[in-house]
User: Which sequence fits this backbone?
């Protein structure tokens, strides 16, 4: 499957991936409305880790052996056998945060307002996820494998 | 001391559009924007804004506009705001005013007073989309005559080393330390892709870039930073730097804060120490001394590479250039009044040197009068802005041009002139590792190669319009130029006729 990989040496810590992730997961898909008007507030499904000069954005890795899926109490988290994407059924998620405890990447976020988790869905419906498409320094790539990305 | 300096710019934040995402906060390197946690609001303090527009370009909702602060003094043609503010700065610091980039004053830009010719009726123009158009240029000493073996038709004349350029535009000297390694890598990769050369400047060549040696000009400057035998061997051309257009008569100055571990290794100087290049090369006080260094470098590299000598365009350029050619320079580089720098005293930058157009015309004429124009190629730099300037430079006699500022603009530079602070928000003129990442060499090389491609397409259009199919046919052909709005003396020095004549 295609995954999002990070070119750490190109990440400038601008946080635009977070901004565009929030916009993509909003009702309106308009940055001004998404940030200022919408309720519940759309959440970014990734976050930027920073200790200058190092920075990179981290999100669900859609693991081959997804601890979160195994740990999920309600079966809300599933690994799609066809696409390989780890998805969450928002109706079934009860907000127990067990997945957050087991995720080795700290990639799952709490949506406290709605009492459920928010995680990267690789922007279902888009050819290239919003964070990758909008990264101003091409620090994110969406490819089959990461060979050739390291310098 | 309370500063009397007013803010140069105003930051206008549209509250309707601002989504408080703080991208402006993390992109500004001059602490203009800050997040106020009490009010959960982003605020801007304009006094530090340098007008680099990084925040405005990165704002996802275009909520920011950077405008000139309209605070006007009483109208005075003599005591302009810049003059007043320079005095205020010196009254408050007691130091030399430092600045970056090139002369920004209103001395005449001769390129804008020169016009190119085109073919009409009596000679056909050429469509470069349909017919081949040659931009290939060879730099180096050309023989006076060529002798050929009668039977085998092989060349009897020994040809001096030549360098082939696919396009007569090279990237000018910008040292590692002044600009970042990512900038160097962008330049090197773009030069390799476009079939031209880039120049290391006086700070040495980082080991990771030796693989681009075939497209590299290495500089030997007065500080001899980073000069060793592998460095000379790696290069395609060796350049002796006598002076640069932004600060003729002054040596380079890299502040210690920019001498990081990697810079220190490449320059071969201790970390965090100032890298001060002497004003002159202390082994060159005459043309004869210059000849010694030229031949020492040729000897060290088995006479396999052309040696270039770069000077700032000054009053006596023509006579000096003549001496440089006699000293054995294969390429002479003239850097004009508008040549830029990472740091120079403002008074020097804006007042010393002469416009490159006049220097080029006088040097080309002088070398022709002395019958030795073939003995060296002429390269000019300092204010070449577009392919129009390039074509005019070639018509005035240049073999190729160097671009520095134009290349940096392609990488994001907005000429905010803060290079000397080391805080470049575009990540170009800094060695702060958190900032240098802002130039991604993958993107940088693409942008630079695109620029060169654009210029070469335009140059082909210009040549085709003139009815010539090779850049050789334009070189030094001043009949393809006409002047407008110039005095007789200016026209005479340029060797160009008045438009209409």
Assistant:
């Amino acid at each position: 499957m295609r995954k999002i990989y990070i070119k750490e040496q190109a990440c400038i810590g601008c946080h635009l991936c977070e901004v565009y992730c929030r916009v993509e997961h909003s009702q309106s898909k308009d940055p001004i409305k998404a940030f200022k008007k919408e309720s519940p507030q759309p959440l970014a499904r990734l976050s930027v880790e920073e200790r200058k000069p190092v920075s990179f954005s981290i999100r669900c890795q859609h693991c081959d052996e997804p601890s979160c899926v195994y740990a999920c109490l309600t079966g809300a988290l599933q690994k799609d056998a066809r696409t390989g994407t780890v998805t969450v059924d928002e109706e079934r998620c009860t907000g127990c945060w067990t997945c957050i405890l087991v995720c080795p990447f700290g990639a799952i976020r709490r949506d406290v307002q709605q009492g459920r988790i928010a995680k990267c869905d690789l922007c279902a419906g888009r050819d290239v996820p919003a964070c990758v498409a909008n990264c101003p320094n091409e620090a994110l790539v969406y490819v089959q494998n990461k060979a050739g990305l390291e310098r | 001391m309370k500063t009397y300096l007013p803010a140069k710019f105003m930051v206008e934040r549209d509250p309707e559009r601002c989504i408080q995402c703080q991208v402006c906060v993390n992109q500004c390197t001059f602490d203009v924007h800050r997040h106020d946690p009490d009010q959960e609001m982003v605020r801007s303090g304009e006094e530090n804004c340098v007008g680099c527009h990084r925040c405005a370009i990165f704002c996802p909702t275009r909520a920011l506009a950077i405008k000139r602060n309209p605070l006007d003094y009483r109208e005075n043609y003599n005591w302009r705001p810049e003059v007043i503010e320079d005095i205020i700065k010196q009254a408050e610091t007691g130091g030399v005013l430092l600045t970056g980039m090139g002369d920004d004053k209103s001395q005449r830009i001769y390129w804008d007073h020169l016009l190119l010719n085109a073919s009409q009726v009596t000679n056909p123009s050429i469509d470069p989309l349909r017919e081949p158009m040659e931009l290939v240029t060879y730099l180096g000493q050309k023989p006076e005559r060529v002798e050929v073996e009668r039977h085998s038709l092989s060349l009897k004349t020994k040809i001096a080393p030549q360098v082939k350029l696919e396009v007569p535009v090279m990237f000018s000297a910008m040292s590692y330390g002044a600009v970042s390694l990512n900038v160097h890598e962008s330049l090197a990769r773009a030069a390799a892709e476009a079939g031209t050369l880039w120049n290391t400047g006086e700070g040495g060549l980082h080991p990771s870039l030796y693989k681009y040696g075939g497209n590299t000009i290495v500089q030997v400057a007065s500080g001899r930073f980073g000069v060793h035998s592998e460095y000379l061997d790696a290069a395609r051309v060796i350049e002796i730097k006598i002076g640069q257009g932004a600060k003729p008569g002054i040596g380079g100055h890299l502040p210690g804060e920019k001498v990081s571990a990697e810079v220190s290794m490449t320059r071969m100087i201790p970390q965090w120490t100032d890298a001060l290049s002497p004003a002159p090369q202390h082994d060159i006080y005459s043309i004869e001394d210059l000849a010694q260094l030229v031949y020492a470098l040729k000897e060290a590299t088995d006479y396999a590479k052309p040696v270039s000598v770069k000077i700032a365009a000054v009053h006596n350029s023509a006579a000096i250039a003549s001496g440089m050619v006699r000293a054995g320079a294969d390429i002479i580089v003239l850097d004009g009044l508008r040549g830029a720098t990472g740091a120079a005293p403002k008074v020097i930058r804006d007042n010393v040197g002469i416009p490159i157009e006049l220097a080029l015309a006088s040097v080309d004429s002088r070398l022709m009068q002395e019958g030795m124009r073939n003995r060296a190629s002429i390269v000019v730099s300092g204010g070449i802005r577009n392919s129009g300037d390039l074509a005019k430079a070639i018509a005035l006699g240049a073999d190729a041009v160097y671009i520095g500022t134009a290349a940096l603009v392609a990488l994001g530079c907005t000429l905010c002139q803060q290079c000397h602070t080391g805080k470049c928000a575009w990540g170009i003129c800094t060695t702060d590792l958190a900032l240098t990442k802002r130039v991604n060499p993958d993107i940088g090389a693409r942008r630079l190669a695109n620029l060169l491609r654009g210029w070469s397409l335009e140059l082909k259009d210009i040549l085709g319009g003139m009815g010539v199919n090779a850049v050789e046919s334009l070189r030094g052909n001043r009949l393809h130029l006409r002047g407008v709005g110039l005095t007789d003396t200016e026209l005479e020095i340029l060797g160009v006729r008045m438009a209409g004549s």
Notes: The longest strand of chain A covers residues 47-51.
